[in-house]
């Protein structure tokens, strides 16, 4: 926390990345009155109509998610007997736990910096999800009290269940990584073996092709026709 606060209060831009831009700015923009006049049109031509339209769907989707989570958590807390102050605090916590905090100061330190912001663009959500799963698993085993461990187990079970329903077995954390490792160990150059295809074939043989697609890829497969090409025999 001390290091994050220091990085926010005392930004350290690299001279290597800053210096080459100075001559270019002076030559093309800084001493050009035409560039300044053109730049004055950016708000009217770009910032107002384009960015407002481009961000409309995502902005309202994010707002909807957070409002629904907050109101539901607040009502549940009130029904459980919490006063207004405690219910509000619980709702805020539930909202940030479920939808995270994407402010710049909340980015992990390894994602802050000149090149990190470019290379790790949009990776804050992934980092938050990895932390959520790992933290829930840790608390399920090492929670400070039996109540904490029970809550963590319910949270982890709920996360795995909803993700399995949405993305199937292959969408669960670490599954594709483990299958890739099994493929490398179970096959060679002469006789390659794909663990993922083997798993899909096993599910198809056991439950039938359509149930196997749902188990492997989630409930969305119920809306699609069966694709024979998706299942390849490894025998």
Helix content class = 55-70%
* Largest sheet: number of strands, sense, barrel closure: none
Shape: extended
| Overall mean confidence score, pLDDT | 83
Number of strands: 0
Q: Work out the radius of gyration.
A: 25 Å
**Strand-residue proportion:** under 5%
Give the structural class. Answer: mainly alpha
Low-confidence stretches: 229-235
N/C terminus separation: 55 Å
Layout of SSEs?
Layout: H1 2-9, H2 15-18, H3 21-30, H4 33-39, H5 42-54, H6 56-79, H7 84-99, H8 114-119, H9 124-142, H10 146-167, H11 175-186, H12 195-207, H13 209-217
Helix pairs in contact: 6-7, 9-10, 10-13, 12-13
Describe the structure.
- This protein has helices at residues 2-9, 15-18, 21-30, 33-39, 42-54, 56-79, 84-99, 114-119, 124-142, 146-167, 175-186, 195-207, 209-217.
- It has 235 residues and is an all-alpha fold.
- Helix 6 (56-79) packs across helix 7, helix 9 crosses helix 10 and helix 12 (195-207) crosses helix 13 (209-217).
- It starts with a helix and ends in an 18-residue tail after the last helix.
- Residues 229-235 have low confidence and may be disordered.
């Amino acid at each position: 926390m001390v290091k994050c606060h220091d990085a926010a209060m005392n930004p350290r831009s690299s001279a290597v990345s800053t210096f080459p831009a100075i001559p270019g700015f002076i030559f093309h923009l800084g001493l050009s009155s035409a560039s300044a006049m053109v730049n004055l049109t950016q708000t009217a031509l770009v910032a107002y109509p384009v960015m407002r339209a481009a961000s409309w769907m995502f902005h309202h989707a994010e707002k909807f998610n957070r409002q629904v989570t907050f109101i539901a958590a607040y009502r549940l807390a009130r029904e459980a007997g919490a006063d207004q102050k405690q219910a509000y605090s619980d709702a805020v916590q539930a909202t940030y736990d479920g939808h995270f905090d994407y402010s710049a100061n909340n980015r992990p330190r390894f994602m802050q910096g000149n090149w990190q912001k470019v290379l790790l663009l949009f990776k804050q959500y992934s980092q938050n999800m990895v932390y959520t799963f790992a933290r829930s698993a840790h608390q399920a085993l090492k929670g400070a009290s039996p109540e904490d461990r029970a809550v963590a187990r319910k949270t982890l079970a709920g996360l795995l269940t909803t993700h399995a329903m949405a993305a199937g077995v292959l969408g669960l954390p670490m599954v594709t990584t483990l299958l890739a490792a099994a493929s490398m160990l179970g096959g060679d150059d002469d006789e390659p073996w794909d663990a993922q295809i083997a798993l899909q074939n096993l599910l198809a043989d056991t439950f039938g092709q359509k149930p196997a697609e749902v188990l492997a890829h989630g409930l969305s497969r119920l809306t699609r026709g069966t694709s024979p090409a998706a299942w390849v025999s490894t025998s």
